[in-house]
UniProtKB/TrEMBL annotation:
This protein's name: Ribosomal RNA small subunit methyltransferase H
Its EC number(s): 2.1.1.199
One GO molecular-function entry: rRNA (cytosine-N4-)-methyltransferase activity
Enzyme class: transferase
Similarity annotation: Belongs to the methyltransferase superfamily. RsmH family.
Cell location: Cytoplasm
Binding of S-adenosyl-L-methionine, residues: A33, G34, H35, D53, Y80, D101, Q108
Length: 309
């Protein structure tokens, strides 16, 4: 698979990170390596990039695309949420900047056999890391109905979660649900005519993908931890593509920006809480009209940036 896609809000990300030539930077979601290439272009001889991705094909592609930067790039095949442990192992006490472009990447969606798309027929898979065991097939055919309802509601914000979950349970009792189009058609039949906004399977597929890859699990704690790993003046940029992710990132930043949280009636501070960052994007940055026309994936993207103080 050729792992290529257009990096979302490329200019805004690169400018927002305010890259220092001798800095150490993290790209926790390497993807097609477009953002990584932009960072590496601005690093000098002493600069370094730690590039991480769950998808081994993304890393293999990046090693070819970024071959000229081999001496200052370290690749990690892992979940970005494990980056703190990797930084410890690499004896990196602080970093100059970090980027996280969350969610599924275009090549994963555009490769039918990966099973992410409800528009192309493929086995139910949806794994970002194809070496892991849990697949979308396991979720759809193995989870109890009540658990499917919870996932569809929490991760997909799907109002018809009970009806769709019941339809899945009935269908799989006859025979396993094996393909993406089989599942998408089942979901579509569960929707009342004329009540659909966009494809009716979109929210359920998002929910299953999040569950398979554990995308939201531990996200807020990780964002806080990696932000505190920034050196003074270092910046973190996070791109999200749906409201669940964006809310988590927003709350993590707000918590880190808070100063004393003691009861205002107390004469002195006893909590010890201190402001750790300055949020540079009071409202998230969104893609320009021009970018949205060129890259449909950017339509739902939101970029938040914060600086360590």
């Amino acid at each position: 698979m050729e792992f290529r896609h257009i990096p979302v809000m490329y200019r805004e990300v690169i400018e927002g990170l305010r890259i220092r030539p001798d800095g150490i930077y993290v790209d926790g979601t390497l993807g097609g390596a477009g953002h990584s290439e932009g960072i590496l272009n601005r690093l000098g001889a002493q600069g370094r990039l730690i590039a991480c991705d769950l998808d081994l094909s993304a890393i293999e592609n990046a090693k070819v695309r970024l071959a000229e930067y081999e001496g200052k790039t370290t690749y990690l095949h892992d979940d970005y949420k494990n980056l703190i442990a990797h930084l410890d192992r690499l004896n990196i006490p602080s970093i100059s900047g970090a980027l996280f472009d969350l969610g599924v990447s275009s090549p994963q969606i555009d490769t039918p056999e990966r099973g992410f798309s409800y528009m192309k027929d493929a086995p139910l898979d949806m794994r970002m890391d194809v070496t892991q065991r849990l697949t979308a097939y396991d979720v759809v055919n193995g989870y109890e109905g009540a658990e499917l309802i919870r996932i569809f509601r929490e991760y997909g914000e799907e109002r018809l979660a009970p009806k769709i979950a019941a339809a899945i349970v009935r269908e799989r009792a006859k025979a396993p649900i094996e393909t993406t189009l089989q599942l998408a058609a089942l979901i579509e039949r569960a929707y009342p005519k004329g009540k659909q906004t966009g494809h009716p399977a979109k929210r359920v597929f998002q929910a299953i993908r999040i569950e398979v890859n554990g995308e939201l699990e531990g996200l807020e704690a990780f964002i806080k931890a990696i932000t505190l790993r920034l050196e003074k003046g270092g910046r973190i940029a996070v791109i999200t593509f749906h409201s669940l992710e964006d809310r988590i990132v927003k709350n993590a930043f707000k918590e880190l920006e808070k100063d004393c949280i003691c009861d205002k009636r107390m004469p002195i501070c006893t909590c010890g809480k201190r402001k750790e960052i300055e949020i540079l994007t009071k409202k998230p940055i969104v893609a320009s009209d021009e970018e949205r026309q060129i890259n449909k994936r950017s339509e739902s993207a939101k970029l938040r940036i914060a600086e360590r103080i």
